[in-house]
Every structure is written in C-alpha cells, then in structure tokens.
Amino acid sequence: MAVTKLRGRAGWIAVMTAAMVWPAWAAPQSVPPAGTQVAGQSTGRGTGAAVPQPPPGAGKPVATPPKPGAATPPATPPPDYVIGPDDVLTISLWKDATVNGDVTVRPDGKISFAFLNEIQAAGLTPEQLRAVLTTAFSTYQQDPTVTLVVKQINSRKVYITGEVGRPGTYPLTEHMTVVNLISVAGGVSAYAHKDNISVLRIVNGVNVRVAKINYDDIIDGKVAALKQNIELKPGDQVIVP
Predict the structure, then answer these.
(1) Is 97 contained in some domain?
(2) pLDDT tens-digit map of 21-35
(3) Reduced to 3 states, what is the DSSP secondary structure of residue 168?
(4) Residue 146 lies in a domain
C-alpha cells in the first residue's frame, strides 16, 4: 500500500515537472482565419486583406544635383567683343602646366605672369591677345602653342540713373537698346521726364550725349522716335531725369 502511494506521488511529480519544462515551440500555434492581416506579414490567403503600398514616388529615379565646384562653361563673346577690366580669361601654354589657369584682367587693363612682364589685355580681341602672348612666350619656349578662352565677361556694363525703378549697373547683353535697359531697371517712374532721356558715351576720353530720347514716342511706335532707341555700348550711361 505504501509503495503504491509513493509511485502515485512520484508519477504526479514527474507529470508536473514535464509540464514546466515543455518547450514553447511545442505549444500549438493559433492560425489566423483566412484573409486576416497580421502585423509585419501577410497570410497570402483571402481577398479582403489590406496590402501595404509603397510611398508615392518610390522607385522613381532621383535627379542628381550638380557637384560642388563643377566647371563653369566659357562665355560666348559677341562679335564686337574686346577684352576689358574684370574679365576672366583661361590661358594655357602647351607642355607647361605652370602657365595653365584663369587670369583676371586688372583695373588698369593688364595681366601678368611670374616670368613675363605685364601685358596689356584690355582693348584687344581674344585673338589679338593670343598672338601677343605667343610672341611673349617665345622667349621662354620655342614655338609656343597658346590657348585663350574667355571664361567670364564682366567688363561689358551699362549704367542707368534717375527716375527708374532700380537705378544701377547692369551687364550689357547682346543688342541691348535704351528701352531694353529701362525695362530691366524696372521702368520709368511716374515723375520721370520721359521726353528728355539722355545717353552719355565716352568718346576720346570725353562724355558726349549721343542720343536724346522721347520714351513715350518710342513706345507709341512713332517712326522718327524709333531711331532714337539706339543700341548701347559698354560704358554707356542712361539718364532719366
């Protein structure tokens, strides 16, 4: 009788111990009903499940921004272009990397190199300056090959003062006329004397009025007035009283 009770108690203890150490993976798993969406996964069954959608624009190519320090394309000089102060020139000498680089024309119109005297650049065309540099470099290198590219044109400027929206200095674009400049400068003000606009130009070192303009007549398209709307040149000053 005692043996029977002991065996019964030992069996109960064994059963309880087994229940405590039974692995979690052996427990029966609950299976969601068909069509039920489970966080982080899809059952792949049913027809009413909500399927996560990618954000708008996903998978589309992304525009690559320009790299910092990207090379600036060279300027396109107009047919009548001559080099002036503040213009930036790219000059290279074949077989000599020490000369290659950008040179800014100084306010006095000259450029300089470490082993050459100062060279007058302002007032010359790019081809004329290239020929001058070729002659100058010939004392340093036999049969030099010089390349000259206009990188930036900063010398072609015009000025407008008086009764306009934004008086100041403006770059001279190709075929810019007086009316074009007035428009760029914000137009004439309500107090402007539009029948007495002047264009001043330096001729042989002297300021000369080269045109008197009646703005309203030009805008109205009067034939005689259209001739007053002259094409500007570098250094011209328009005065709107």
Answers:
(1) yes
(2) 455 444 455 555 554
(3) strand
(4) yes
